[in-house]
Amino acid sequence: MTDTEDLLNETVLPEDLKKYEKVYHEQLHGGSVTRQAQFNYAWCLVRSKFPVDIRKGIILLEELFRSAADAEDERRDYLYYLALGNCRIKEFSAALQYTSAFLEIEPGNAQVKTLEEVIRKKMEKAEIQEGIKGIAIISGVVLALGSIVGLGMALSKK
Amino acid sequence: MSAGPYNYEYIFKYIIIGDMGVGKSCLLHQFTDKKFMADCPHTIGVEFGTRIIDVAGQKVKLQIWDTAGQERFRAVTRSYYRGAAGALMVYDITRRSTYNHLSSWLTDTRTLTNPSTVIFLIGNKCDLDSADGSQRDVTYEEAKQFADENGLMFVEASAKTGDNVEEAFLETAKKIYQSIQDGRLDLNAAESGVQHKPPQLGSDFTPNKDPCSC
Ligand SMILES: Nc1nc2c(ncn2[C@@H]2O[C@H](COP(=O)(O)OP(=O)(O)OP(=O)(O)O)[C@@H](O)[C@H]2O)c(=O)[nH]1
Ligand SMILES: [Mg+2]
């Protein structure tokens, strides 16, 4: 039994995020950012607690993916973290597209298959929760209606 | 299941480190799934595994972070060292360069973990040392000496046959547990790498429950 969900719940330490953010920005101001610096920063961002950070990380990873057309071994890393980042902001179908793109290139990769499984589970869970929330909203409406009806009846009795 | 009911009393955090291709992920899979992956691709960033074990009659959940050895992951994998109670440092007995890099892995570990972190040295792929045509490139004796000089625990193991794999993970846990008993490891320290789960918090905690089916 492996609860790989912990992999997605683990978050970056703020000081690490700051450290790699600084390097990235210094290079950006200097006019050219190395893929390594951008990757380090993006890796921290997609592990952040805050969805805005994760979204920023995803943009940086997409950029890296496009710019590393010549480096297949790096592109697999970017795909992996694109899947992880998208899962963490609950963009499940995007996340699954990235894992399946990866598995097309490397069908047997156990690490990515595990991630795909976790994404599927999270997606199901979210759907169930949404379902329950939906019911709660409906019953809330029913309750509100009920009390209005009750109030109306109480008023008409006067 | 991260927030589910507890069927363990402690969580120990481990990291597995060492050069790429030495067999870190295979050791993890052998330990968690009792399987050997003959064709294991390079790890991307970090992989994660857990297993609940028994240490001195107590259930302990090991949370294991298997780091990627490829150079481009080096910067960020360092952040996983923090708060590790155990570090398995792996080299490949058939590749001398992986042994030569141990002192730099050790320096990183000592700098980024705390003094109570248990470091266990594993010389992996010992199945490749057969009487006829050994591929061994590092002798047992010199590695043992390195381990003794640096106060590390040490075995030669094989992720392929499973030889000494259990031992490495379990002995590390025993040593950590001893440190807790001796008070050398402060459970309240934020980065001790150990969490204690008081049994009364677990809603379905039953002390005599069968060992977990993992
Ligand atoms: N003969 C033999 N081969 C092994 C053993 N352990 C691992 N291997 C092989 O060595 C290769 C690398 O193993 P991995 O577990 O992927 O190595 P790693 O240290 O995780 O590598 P990175 O993820 O790149 O850091 C794989 O092809 C394994 O099948 C072992 O004990 N004996
Ligand atoms: Mg690996």
Automatic annotation (TrEMBL), chain A:
Localization annotation: Mitochondrion outer membrane; Peroxisome membrane
Database matches in SUPFAM superfamilies: TPR-like
Membrane topology: Single-pass membrane protein
Any one GO biological process: peroxisome fission
Domain of life: Eukaryota
Principal location listed in the UniProt entry: mitochondrion
Gene3D superfamilies: Tetratricopeptide repeat domain
Key words, A-Z: Apoptosis, Membrane, Mitochondrion, Mitochondrion outer membrane, Peroxisome, Transmembrane, Transmembrane helix
Membrane spanning stretches: 131-155
GO CC list: mitochondrial outer membrane; peroxisomal membrane
Family: Belongs to the FIS1 family.
Free-text comment on this protein's domains from its UniProt entry: The C-terminus is required for mitochondrial localization, while the N-terminus is necessary for mitochondrial fission.
Function noted in UniProt: Involved in the fragmentation of the mitochondrial network and its perinuclear clustering.
Protein name per the record: Mitochondrial fission 1 protein
Organism: Bemisia tabaci
UniProtKB/TrEMBL annotation, chain B:
SUPFAM superfamilies according to UniProt: P-loop containing nucleoside triphosphate hydrolases (SSF52540)
Stored InterPro entries: P-loop_NTPase, Rab14, Rab_GTPases_membrane_traffic, Small_GTP-bd, Small_GTPase
Reactions catalysed, as given in the entry: GTP + H2O = GDP + phosphate + H(+)
Region ranges (Disordered): 191-214
Cofactor(s) required for function per UniProt: Mg(2+)
Superkingdom assignment: Eukaryota
SMART domains with a match to the protein in the record: RAB, RAN, RAS, RHO
UniProtKB keywords: Acetylation, Cytoplasmic vesicle, Endosome, Golgi apparatus, GTP-binding, Hydrolase, Lipoprotein, Membrane, Methylation, Nucleotide-binding, Prenylation, Protein transport, Transport
Location in or out of the cell: Cytoplasmic vesicle; Early endosome membrane; Golgi apparatus, trans-Golgi network membrane; Recycling endosome
Entry's EC annotation: 3.6.5.2
One Gene Ontology cellular component: phagocytic vesicle
GO MF annotation, one: GTP binding
GO biological process entries: defense response to bacterium; endocytic recycling; Golgi to endosome transport; phagosome maturation; protein transport
Family note: Belongs to the small GTPase superfamily. Rab family.
Protein name: Ras-related protein Rab-14
Organism lineage: Eukaryota, Metazoa, Ecdysozoa, Arthropoda, Hexapoda
